[in-house]
Design a protein that fits this description.
Elements: E1 3-8, H1 17-31, E2 35-40, H2 42-48, E3 60-61, E4 79-83, H3 89-92, E5 99-103, E6 115-118, E7 137-140, E8 165-169, H4 178-186, E9 194-199, H5 206-213, E10 219-223, H6 229-234, E11 237-240, H7 245-251, E12 256-260, H8 266-274, E13 278-283, H9 288-301, H10 303-316, H11 321-330, E14 333-334, E15 340-345, H12 351-358, H13 361-364, H14 375-383, E16 392-398, E17 401-410, E18 417-424, H15 433-444, E19 449-453, H16 459-467, E20 471-474, E21 477-480
Parallel strand pairs: 1-2, 1-4, 2-3, 4-5, 5-6, 6-7, 8-9, 8-11, 9-10, 11-12, 12-13, 18-19
Antiparallel strand pairs: 14-15, 15-16, 16-17, 17-18, 19-21, 20-21
Helix pairs in contact: 4-5, 7-10, 9-10, 11-15
């Protein structure tokens, strides 16, 4: 079984951003058979253990000081993922992991990394020049934001909506009590608005927020919600910070009044404002109440501003970043003619292209249902699969041009078992793209049993899957064991 260890930082002051984005990736890896563990210094582990899902408990305590020059008592993982602003090359190179993925936002220190993931809007690989090895590969920009599958849906159409509902979410710990102060300001607003307030068990001011909200008739407090996606879709505007939740708001097309709660959020907030996705309210100071009131009043009087900001926000992040990361980590396959094959996640944008392929006679010939789908049937089918949390739905790229589809669907509720479906554009069949795609699919799910249903008369597909390591097991089924 493939193994991954996530070394994270979290705490009352640091917050939960590092932990939550790593959890998103860990849950996806676990679905496809990876054994995932979390690790940190002793204090971090004590803090995150109550927050971790049971399957990831307990976190591996690496000692009181991660900077100590010592070898850690831990089995070498296949993949080491480090998401910690206080760590860099010296720590990362002490693990002999097959692959090291560093998640960073700062571009201010050296790393021992095979992969560098930075989901900051506008980030470029050149920002890490001199900080990473020459052969380090990059996943940079908000298109790689690690978001839960619930955010990979079309954002709601906010055209014509007036400002009625505001989502207040200021981080997983809010150690400064900003949520509480926002609610105190809420009493004095000159406009009447519905507010949804997010609190977590890690917030020191949680009870005070609950107490003050009881006296505010238009305020609803939500405790430890599993996903913010539904509340973000219902809201017209958010009040938030410049942390990892920024990309969730963008994926749902939610404009934001941004408050800087940490110095490292300054660049993110500036980028969001330049892109037209929010307004910068500055820091929590004596003038915040005035600025907040003015902004809410302006949006109430000019709802078209909200609609424009919603469109701008939705262009920043589409919610498919986690899938892109998984596909990137699978790497590439180079063909005999030196062409390169890789996978990328299917998004809403590829629906029309897949429909074109699905209706070709050459494709339908050996399908279980040889009748081509109607457009409405395809739209329903595609919508039920794109962004699904329990499957891999990818496009096959040949020299960066889409030439097919590879899909791994959970099989009969079996744990870590998937049915493989592949489609290659007839115009490029015979070049090796199909075999390369199946090899990449195995990399995506290294610890899963992969099944394929192949019609008896489909000799070409039988040869293809045999070359990829699949063996017949009866009744048209072929199996590639983990």
């Amino acid at each position: 079984m493939s193994s991954a260890v996530f070394v994270v930082n979290a705490g009352p002051i640091i917050g939960l951003g590092h932990l939550m984005r790593c959890l998103t990736l860990a849950l996806r890896l676990r679905l496809f058979g990876w054994q995932c563990r979390f690790a940190g210094d002793d204090g971090v582990c004590s803090f995150i253990n109550p927050l971790l899902p049971e399957e990831f408990q307990p976190a591996i305590a690496l000692g009181p000081d991660l900077h100590a020059d010592r070898v850690f008592d831990i089995d070498t993982p296949d993949m080491l993922i480090v998401d910690h602003y206080g760590l860099g090359r010296d720590f990362e190179q002490r693990f002999n992991a097959r692959c090291t993925l560093v998640i960073d936002d700062l571009a201010n220190r050296s790393h021992h990394a095979d992969w560098l993931l930075d989901q900051t809007l506008g980030r470029q690989p050149g920002d890490y020049a001199g900080f990473v090895p020459a052969d380090c590969r990059f996943m940079v920009g908000s298109e790689f934001a690690l978001l839960k599958p619930a955010f990979a849906q079309y954002p709601p159409n906010r055209t014509g909506r007036s400002l009625k509902r505001v989502l207040i979410s200021l981080g997983g710990t809010d150690s400064q009590g900003l949520t509480l102060r926002i609610l105190e300001m809420w009493r004095e607003l000159p406009v009447e608005l519905q507010a949804d307030v997010i609190v977590t068990r890690a917030m020191p001011f949680r009870q005070a927020v609950l107490d003050i909200a009881r006296d505010l008739p238009n305020v609803t407090v939500h405790c430890d919600v599993a996903s913010l996606a539904p509340l973000m879709r219902e809201a017209d505007l958010a009040i938030g910070a410049g942390g990892t939740t920024s990309w969730e708001r963008c994926a749902t097309g939610l404009p934001t009044l941004l408050i800087r709660v940490a110095d490292n959020q300054k660049a993110v907030i500036a980028a969001l404002v330049r892109a037209g996705a929010g307004l910068d309210l500055g820091m929590d100071d004596s003038g915040l109440a005035v600025r907040l009131t003015a902004a809410l009043t302006e949006f109430t009087l000019n709802p078209s501003m909200l609609a424009d900001m919603a469109v701008a926000a939705a262009k920043i992040c589409d919610g498919f970043g986690t899938g892109r990361v998984l596909c990137a980590l699978a790497g590439t396959v180079r063909l005999d003619d030196d062409a390169e094959v890789r996978l990328d996640v299917m998004t809403h944008a590829e629906s029309a292209l897949l429909f074109e392929w699905q209706t070709l006679p050459e494709i339908r010939r050996y399908a279980r249902n040889p009748k081509p789908p109607t457009l409405s049937e395809h739209v329903r089918w595609y919508g039920s699969r794109v962004g699904s949390p329990d499957r891999i739905f990818t496009q096959v790229l040949l020299n960066n041009k889409a030439v097919g589809m590879l899909r791994l669907d959970p099989r009969d509720g079996r744990k870590t078992a998937f049915e493989v479906s592949i489609l290659i554009d007839p115009r490029v069949q015979g070049r090796g793209a199909g075999l390369a795609a199946l090899q990449l699919g195995r990399r995506l799910a290294p610890a899963a049993d992969l099944w394929a249903y192949i019609m008896e008369e489909n000799v070409a597909s039988q040869r293809l899957f045999k070359a990829a390591g699949y063996n017949p097991v009866g009744e048209n089924w072929h199996l590639n064991c983990a």
